[in-house]
């Protein structure tokens, strides 16, 4: 039951002299249960891309298919779609509005037509998934810390019980501790709930250590779509896009230049450690 | 969407109008608005139109850009036209169909009201297109400085206006983002009656207000940190001084006003 | 011999000059919450006895997790907040002295987190002139300062633009230019990169570093991004309103475990070097750059 984008083009302010081609011939298939990272510099078109997946933006041409059905066809229930493809925007402040956390998280399920009791049940389950204890339920969402607000915002979308969860920079502005907590929540959602997680991020290090597949968006095109090891192999091209590879990838390449045969495709600290130990122990000659 | 609104946003080019003292533009705009209410026949409107065209030419702002900026007020204009067209009585009746009737004075009024509105908005937005908000507020502050005698806080009002102009596009964009964030949670802004729709606005308005207050607090702090302490002892980057072009502009405007007044009384 | 040349006066002047440009002694700040009846319901100590002494020309980074009190400290350095205990001196001016408040704010300029919420004008150059206008500087002098400041942050080409059309990093550089136009001796940057993308972050940090090196401006950078502090002369790590660690980047980053406890991390290079050390490789502590690590590993080959 995948989401598919077929030859999607998106023009901003189409038909005016200020027309901009934001997406060009995007083809993409996302399966249930995947863990995907989307990277691209500001203005590369990645935000536009994710807003197509739940029908907030309408493709100028091409199709977006959910389980084979065109989501822009007449009569397709896009509001229902938004319950299945959850999208959490960058700033939690843009969606929190109720007087207490629990009521705010109920907003989604209530919009889906569930009764107050059912909505509350779903909200509690969602808050539990993001690891927010019950002592927070009656507090005002505006009094929480940055990391806690993010969790409430994620819960607000999770309560609709989506199969796919897209998050636009969920760790921006958080300190390293808060960042690790949010990434931990996402890993759990993927592993325990089987939700497909699509993480839009500026941090190569975060993406490298969490996702299984990376989509690189550059200038409205999909430049790469592969596992992290393969994508970061093209670190020189990534740099020309205003992106980079994780620091450890650079270390590995620098070491190889000096004749130490480490694996050039390492993307996490753990992988780099193993590879360096291996190479220095003198058994690494065959890695190249 | 709101963020695409161009009405009144400064258009950065060099032109005769851009080079004028803001006080000149303020005074001229006011006089022009008065002239629109004085003009009461075809000749007056033609003159007002010609004067406006002259100004648009002298501003270097593309006519297309100005027309595009009018879009948001299209509804208001239609409403004025329709109300005047159908609700004005008198003779002779041009058209009658059941209870709907259009009279000659009605048609005349509708056309004139529409023209008046278009001229008024184009004229005043021409001022904001050619004057940076800071220059505009400087102009107001100095040009209306005499009001201080009546305890009108001229400087404060001017500062408030310039800040509002800076933040309107930011808040408009933010409203757009908030709306999308709530739509992603299944919010429905398209269906339902008036009350349902008004209620649907709450999830947009609450975050927007909270954000606006937060921005206001931040901004106040940033202004304080940059030594802002009211208008007292403040100097200006652009000290206002009338130049030759201003006197020329005034001459033109006064000439125009004189003709309008003459036309108004001489039938 | 006039008393101006008296050795004691000369000596005292030297002492004053050698004293830090920014100093705090036992700085305490308490947020007090009151209910409707003005009864105090909660007192929370955001800053708890901070001593700082920052010398002219230094580049000091203040690191701390969200809510550690680092921003509250920053607001004291510009007299935006008054201490509830202890004292803050900016060039020997006590921030509680209301007559000196404008002098203090001109000496220690401040850049805030959200670039949008600190730009007042709709045109870049006019915004940069806002500070000098408030200070009552004559017009020609303002223009000179605006030119120089925009030049210094590399934004001269954008002077006529609207800030709304700039990227986050560019906006933040405009904000820095706005402070520079006031000719401060010290700039306090309160999480200037928290809302920026990596490109913008690099832009801003590079600009700040250049101002420090070329113009000799004292920089106090408040942040929770470790990478940004690698080039600092000194790092203060703040948690729960107290200074928990202090030292050069090398000294601070060698304590990986301690930093983790404080909800902070280290750059990946430092982490990798630390992990390799734990595995028994004889690497020095506190490796900060890729080059350092590569050189050390090559030595082991």
Walkthrough of the structure:
The complex is a heterotrimer of chains A (288), B (267) and C (301). By secondary structure, chain A is of the alpha/beta class. Chain A has a domain at 246-288. Helix content of chain A is 40%, strand content 21%. Chain A is built from 11 helices and 10 strands. Chain A has helices at 46-53, 78-84, 101-111, 116-129, 146-158, 176-192, 204-210, 228-233, 235-240, 247-257, 269-283, and strands spanning 3-12, 20-30, 35-39, 61-66, 69-70, 85-88, 164-168, 196-200, 213-218, 221-226. In chain A, helix 3 (101-111) packs across helix 4 (116-129). Residues 284-288 of chain A have low confidence and may be disordered. With 267 residues, chain B is mainly α. Chain B has 2 domains: 1-131 and 241-267, no CATH class; 132-234, no CATH class. Helix content of chain B is 68%, strand content 3%. In chain B, strands 1-2 form a two-stranded antiparallel sheet. The radius of gyration of chain B is 23 Å and the shape is flat. Chain C has helices spanning 7-18, 70-76, 101-107, 124-128, 130-135, 139-152, 168-180, 198-214, 249-253, 256-261, 268-278, 290-300; strands spanning 22-34, 40-54, 59-63, 85-90, 93-94, 108-111, 186-190, 218-223, 234-239, 242-247. In chain C, helix 6 packs across helix 7 and helix 7 (168-180) packs parallel to helix 8 (198-214). Chain C is built from 12 helices and 10 strands. Chain C has one domain: Rossmann fold. In chain C, a hairpin with a 5-residue loop joins strand 1 and strand 2. In chain C, 38% of the residues lie in helices and 23% in strands. In chain C, the strands form 2 sheets. Chain C has a 6-stranded mixed sheet, sandwiched between helices. The model of chain C has no long low-confidence stretch (mean pLDDT 91). Chain C is α/β, with parallel strands linked by helices. The chains are: A alpha/beta (288), B mainly alpha (267), C alpha/beta (301). Chains in contact: A-B, A-C, B-C. Chains B and C meet through helix 8 and helix 10 of B and helix 3, helix 5 and helix 6 of C.
